[in-house]
Amino acid sequence: MAVRHLEVEVRREPGGAVLDLRGEINGFAEEALDTAYAEAERDNPETILLNFEEVDYINSTGIALIVGLLARARAAKRRLVAYGLSDHYVEIFNITRLSDFVSVFPDEESALSGAA
User: Fold this and answer.
1) Would you say residue 116 has pLDDT above 80?
2) Distance CA 20, CA 69 (A)
3) Exposure of 33 in the CB half-sphere (CA atoms within 13 A)
4) Which of 1, 3, 55, 65 has the fewest CB atoms found within 10 Å of its own CB?
5) What does the pLDDT read at residue 2?
């Protein structure tokens, strides 16, 4: 199975900046995540939303990268919100207690409402 490197697009929505994630979040994703996060925080949004709808796979290194984004968000007193996670990854967020610090929503509409 070929690795699908992570692609990230940043867009602005009322209520925050959205990172549309596509592919796999693993050790190869660090540069793409860091670059996109830096672009998203440029306008100093209160909330950054991570859209996982097109993420195929997240390994333990990928979870560590998400924790790194959380640390950056908390240092800037910014909320980090996730949506579009599969049931499996919602469970992983719960097991790792990442969901204690990153609010998880089923879709973009509820994430934007919850971020407001």
Assistant:
1) no
2) 15
3) 27
4) 1
5) 62
Distance (Å, whole) CA 83 – CA 103: 8
Domain that holds residue 13: 7-115
State how many domains the chain has: 1
61, 26 contact by CB (below 8 A) = yes
DSSP 56-98: EEE-HHHHHHHHHHHHHHHHTT-EEEEE---HHHHHHHHHTTG
15-46 per-position pLDDT tens digit: 899 999 999 999 999 999 999 999 999 999 99
Tens digits of per-residue pLDDT, 58-69?
999 999 999 999
Q: Check residue 27 and report its DSSP letter.
A: G
Q: Are 75 and 37 in contact (CB under 8 A)?
A: no
**Nearest alpha-carbon partner for 32 in 9, 55, 58:** 9
Residue 55 vs residues 13, 18, 69, 116: alpha-carbon distances, Å: 20, 14, 17, 25
Domain of 64, CATH number, reads 3.30.750.24
